Amino acid sequence: MSHLERLKKMMTGELPGAPIAQVLGFEVVEVEEGRVVIELEASERLHNPMGTLHGGILGDMADAAMGYTFVSTLADDELFTTVELKLNFLKPVFKSKLRADGRIIKKGGTIGLLECHIYDEKGSLVAHSTSTCMVLKGNANQKRERNS
What we know:
Layout: H1 3-12, H2 19-24, E1 27-32, E2 35-42, H3 55-71, E3 79-89, E4 96-107, E5 111-119, E6 125-136, H4 140-147
Antiparallel strand pairs: 1-2, 2-4, 3-6, 4-5, 5-6
């Protein structure tokens, strides 16, 4: 099964989401090659001591949306790793359904540059993130299957 097919099965519930998605409660809601959207119901359970959504949750959402986006473009024998992540917080979130839209800016043979916009339920931009990902080639899938 290709990476893109696996993501589509996660979206429809035929396959479970990544463990971190299950812990935080975000779901893949749109999948196409080079673009993935995830959603999360942000509530008090994810707040920091200040009473707003913990910034790390936005970081996890952005990283997941961009990671899923990047993996949607990979060959079956390729995996990837994130080598850099930058996140701008643009407004506080208290309680809202969040939507993280991950997209490819540029992808080469080894390195990809991605971005993610995270919106609240009113369509207001709450965070912007960029990421650099590196393709891992060769027997990467064999290593993943061995560790499963």
